[in-house]
Amino acid sequence: MADAGITPGDLVLDVGAGTGVLTLALLVIAALAAAAVTFVSYVLWPTWPRATIPFDTPAIPVTVAGVLFNVPPAAIRAAVQRHPGAHERIDLVFLWPSLAPPQAAGEPSTGAVTGGDGEETPEVKIDDRVFVTIAGLGAVLPPQARLRSIYPRYIERAATAGSEGLAVVAFRAGTPYEGEDLIYLAEQPEQFFARCSRPVHAVPGTCVYERLVDTAEITLRFPREWLPKWRTVAAGCDRLLAQIHSPNGRRTADD
């Protein structure tokens, strides 16, 4: 009489079928769990508001390298940076000498402005602007340390006299600052110094004037042709820093 029991071959087939069903069920459960995690992460992930902040909004608080600044949205050059909170860097522009942010497109001109000395000055031109970048200092040496230990390695030996007590010395060709001049107050270089590009054909020269506020480096750019009034420029930069940064008992690191 033939044996009606289960053969070894039948056992292997039955186990294989059960394993396939179990694997499929596990895959479905894993897919559902992944979808749930993705949905929850999307909902809870912090994002900045998508709405653009109006230009006429009062100054908003931003932090760069842990330092607090209050900047008017109209002065922020990039729309993506126009929000409060922490930034790796922020790029600003201000009219000179009023230090007001530029007007929004389509708004009428405000006419004459008042300078820091209280005298009315003519309406500003498009080039009468100072550009400001705020970024963390990171591993870069502070401006004063660069003046003492870095720049002397790259400049020419002889300096020439400039206007209003300034001295001008060229950076050597083949150095990181090729095409620029180091311009500083001859008697007290640390009181005022800037790196300035030279005018080339129709392209005017630009000066880079750097300041340090705690762990944030402030880079101000202005036309080289302003240098004969460098004292006014330095005073204006001081007013601008006081305008966007309230030290709350902390002093500027360059003071």
Brief digest:
The chain has 255 residues and is α+β, with helices and mostly antiparallel strands.
Write up what this structure looks like.
The chain is an alpha+beta fold. It has two domains: 9-46; 60-244, no CATH class. Helices cover 24% and strands 26% of the residues. It has three helices and 13 strands. Strands 4-7-13-12-11-10-9-8 form an eight-stranded antiparallel beta sheet, with no helix packed on it. It has a three-stranded mixed beta sheet with strand order 2-1-3, with no helix packed on it. Strands 5-6 form a two-stranded antiparallel sheet. The longest helix has 37 residues, at 8-44. It is elongated. The chain starts with 7 loop residues before the first helix and ends in an 11-residue tail after the last helix. Mean pLDDT is 80; it is low at 4-15, 105-124 and 249-255.
